[in-house]
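Query structure, 282 tokens:
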């Protein structure tokens, strides 16, 4: 096997220029308030999430990952900038990410990517639901988002004007379909698509098709007090229903990547599931 250093040396001495690698497509999915232990790969005894189980089987399941901060906005700022929250200038919820902060999205746009943001933003102050003007979108061109709201049904989002656009029905379903529509757009450019879903954040009100968890049959952790068991079971039934609903959307995204030939196209050297970054925190 020839080493990388030897190969580059040969190329330099013979005048052969190495071809620039094709840029990989990037699909980044964030779910709000998803506990790290609530995953099939973490051994959760209650959750039904076959698509997340598939990602863990086919990709990299990182079990020692840690949030940079325990609340939403600082964590989001860290993910977008690659800095600790205090260095990014966001140390509390409902804060504005400073406009001078470099972001991954702006860097990828400059590198020739189509950039898209769908869903909850929560880096533009306290406005709810909140129209985010184009000059504060940090390099994202396609925009179907809002600053912050925690409504799972009949919510709204914004595009390029402050006119709210209805998202009828269960919000994650609608946002996932917007993501699917973006993935289906023909383009020779690589894409960076950031899908930010509120579920399973409270309120724990899943759609009827996923309100199927029986509170009495749920296995509770040992640290749940006896006096809190009834309320914990009720809350967890709704929570897991939201998790399963989000998992269904992940399956929809995986199917679209397969359908469009994006899962294993020639611009990617990694396996399919490594093109979906699945991030959950609280």
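Result returned for the query:
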């Amino acid at each position: 096997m020839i080493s990388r250093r030897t190969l580059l040396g040969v190329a330099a001495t013979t005048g052969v220029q190495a071809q620039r690698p094709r840029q990989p497509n990037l699909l980044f999915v964030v779910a709000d308030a998803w506990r790290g232990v609530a995953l099939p790969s973490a051994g959760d005894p209650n959750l039904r999430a076959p698509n997340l189980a598939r990602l863990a089987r086919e990709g990299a399941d990182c079990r020692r990952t840690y949030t940079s901060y325990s609340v939403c906005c600082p964590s989001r700022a860290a993910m977008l900038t690659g800095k600790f929250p205090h260095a990014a200038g966001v140390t509390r919820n409902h804060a504005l990410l400073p406009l001078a902060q470099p972001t991954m999205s702006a860097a990828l746009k400059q590198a020739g990517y189509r950039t898209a943001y769908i869903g909850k933003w929560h880096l533009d102050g306290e406005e709810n639901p909140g129209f985010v003007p184009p000059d504060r979108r940090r390099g994202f061109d396609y925009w179907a988002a809002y600053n912050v709201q925690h409504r799972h049904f009949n919510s709204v989002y914004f595009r390029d004007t402050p006119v709210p656009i209805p998202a009828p029905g269960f919000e994650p379903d609608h946002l996932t379909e917007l993501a699917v529509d973006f993935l289906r757009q023909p383009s020779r450019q690589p894409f960076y698509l950031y899908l930010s879903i509120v579920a399973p954040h409270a309120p724990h009100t899943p759609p009827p098709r996923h309100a199927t968890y029986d509170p009495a049959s749920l296995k509770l952790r040992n640290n749940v007090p006896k006096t809190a068991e009834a309320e914990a079971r009720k809350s967890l039934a709704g929570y897991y229903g939201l998790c399963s609903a989000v998992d269904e959307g992940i399956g929809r995204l995986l199917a679209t990547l397969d359908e469009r030939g994006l899962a294993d196209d020639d611009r990617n050297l990694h396996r399919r599931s490594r093109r979906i970054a699945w991030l959950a925190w609280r």
